[in-house]
Write a structure and sequence with these properties.
Number of domains of chain A: 1
Mean pLDDT of chain A: 89
Number of strands of chain B: 9
Structural class of chain A: mainly alpha
Strand content of chain A: under 5%
Order of helices and strands of chain A: HHHH
Shape of chain A: globular
Helix content of chain B: 40-55%
Low-confidence stretches of chain A: none
Oligomer: heterodimer
Number of strands of chain A: 0
Largest sheet of chain A: none
Radius of gyration of chain B: 21 Å
Distance between the termini of chain A: 21 Å
CATH architecture of chain A: Orthogonal Bundle
Structural class of chain B: alpha+beta
Mean pLDDT of chain B: 93
Helix content of chain A: 40-55%
Radius of gyration of chain A: 11 Å
Largest sheet of chain B: 4 strands, antiparallel
Order of helices and strands of chain B: HHHHHHEEEEEEEHEEHHHH
Number of helices of chain B: 11
CATH class of chain A: Mainly Alpha
Strand order of the largest sheet of chain B: 2-3-7-6
Strand content of chain B: 5-15%
Chain lengths: ~80, ~375
């Protein structure tokens, strides 16, 4: 399963539960899909699923504004 | 984990308890009834060094570590019966002073922290809005950059210390397209035009701690008053709530210990059916439950202190401690009233005031429900 699909399924299944699908470029922050509680869940998921650590300094819009952005962030973290 | 305290730490706790007992409890029933804030007692606490405990010495503090600070706040809660005063001071320390220390510029630290630590200025924290409470980051207050200034518009409510504050930490959205990550913290001085505190808010408990609304109407704030940088508001808010959740509760420990001792003494001296009521299992068991709650609460809280001292971050543990201690404090008040029977129900003994005050603990700094949500999130639920 592709990273993008894993993230999409997690977000639709656990956070954006009123949505059937999300566009990869859709702004998750502006629409309130990821809010201050949602990001705690998402970060916890990313850390467990991809064995990465997300620091406070990395909680910036560029890393979380869309599925594509989260994908790029996770790939960057995994590549060290 | 090492929970042993040094003789110096224990001496500080006892010293604060003695100071609070001797200096801060006078005329409390009438101040509570009339909702009177005591600026005099606020200054006494500041001069004693409470406001500045964990802050750098060169900025007006005492350089105490977090464990020492929590122990000192425990002593404060043990000696001081005025929960409103304790709450107001904690609100300033953790949600005004600490964000300035952690995220502010050197200039902001030098300008504001000595005044706040000395009691010369009072600080307030404006986050909650009429339309955003537990979902704090869905705020609608905006800040628009115009040259070297920001223009703030919006309103805040349930702002502790607002009616007497000289300085406000205000959160506003600088970039709505970035959702909660587009929120920024500002330092707003009371003297700035465009800021109003229309009316104090009456409440059931913590009545000696003034609370109010705050309205921002084209309030211009210099760009150098941004805390940290644009978009850092969420991080600043979460960090200050974690501190507040951890430290404000330490005073509850002291208050619960004081209640327990009072109940033990009363149960031994009050006689019914030719014996002390302590000899009735139903009374003794209630007191035992108070003791068990106190000691488990103490473990939860000092675990947070240890984590914050060694790892800096304690999100889930701070939520566990906040949830458990605030609920334990309410139950302790109910038990104290029940053990004292009719006397416990009177205003004179103060347990009914404690109970009214304790209810707020389940609501401020994140409700018990939000604490459960945080814990659930960290469990991946």
């Amino acid at each position: 399963m592709e990273l993008r699909d894993i993230l999409h399924d997690y977000l639709v299944g656990e956070i954006a539960t009123d949505r059937e699908s999300l566009d990869p470029g859709e702004n998750l922050l502006a629409q309130g899909i990821i809010d201050s509680m949602g990001i705690l869940k998402l970060v916890s998921f990313l850390e467990d699923r991809f064995q990465i650590q997300v620091g406070d300094a990395e909680m910036v819009p560029e890393h979380f504004e869309s599925i594509d952005a989260v994908c790029a962030f996770v790939q960057k973290k995994r590549n060290g | 984990m090492d929970f042993s305290f040094t003789p110096e730490q224990l001496a500080l706790r006892d010293e604060i308890a003695k100071f609070a007992r001797q200096e801060l409890n006078a005329e409390l029933p009438s101040r509570d009834r009339e909702e009177v804030f005591s600026r005099e007692n606020w200054l006494k606490c500041a001069r004693f060094g409470i406001h500045g405990l964990p802050f750098p010495r060169e900025l007006g503090g005492s350089d105490a570590d977090i464990v020492t600070t929590m122990l000192a706040m425990e002593g404060f809660g043990y000696g001081c019966r005025d929960s409103g005063l304790i709450f107001g001071i904690n609100a300033q320390m953790w949600s005004v002073q600490m964000p300035i220390l952690q995220f502010g510029s050197d200039e902001q630290r030098r300008k504001y922290l000595p005044r706040l630590c000395s009691g010369e200025w009072i600080g307030a924290h404006g986050m909650t809005e009429p339309g955003s409470g537990s979902d704090a980051m869905s705020l609608s207050t905006t800040a628009v950059r115009r040259g070297d200034r920001y223009v703030l518009n919006g309103s805040k409510t349930f702002v502790t210390n607002a009616p007497v504050a000289d300085l406000f930490v205000v959160f506003a959205s600088t970039n709505p397209s970035q959702g909660f990550l587009g929120v920024t913290g500002f330092l707003v001085e009371k003297e700035r035009s465009g800021i109003r505190v229309p009316r104090p808010i009456a409440k059931m408990g913590l009545r000696t701690s003034p609370m109010g609304e705050m309205v921002l109407e084209d309030c211009e704030v210099p760009a150098e008053n941004v805390i940290g940088q644009e978009g850092l508001g969420s991080k600043i808010f979460n960090a200050s709530m974690e501190w507040e959740r951890s430290c404000i509760l330490a005073s509850y420990l002291g208050a619960m210990e004081h209640q327990l001792e009072t109940c033990v003494a009363y149960a031994k001296s009050r006689r019914q059916f030719n014996r002390p009521i302590a000899k009735f299992q139903s009374v003794a068991n209630r007191i035992v439950d108070m003791k068990v709650r106190l000691e488990t609460a103490r473990l939860a809280l000092y675990r947070v202190a240890w984590l914050k001292q060694t790892q800096d971050e304690a999100v889930m543990d701070a939520a566990i401690a906040k949830l458990y201690l605030s609920e334990a404090w309410v139950q302790s008040c109910l038990d104290a009233i029940q053990i004292h029977g009719g006397y416990g129900f009177t205003t004179e003994l103060g347990f009914e005031r404690d109970l009214r005050d304790s209810i707020a603990g389940r609501i401020y700094s994140g409700t018990s429900e939000i604490q459960r949500n945080i814990i659930a999130s960290r469990l991946g639920l």
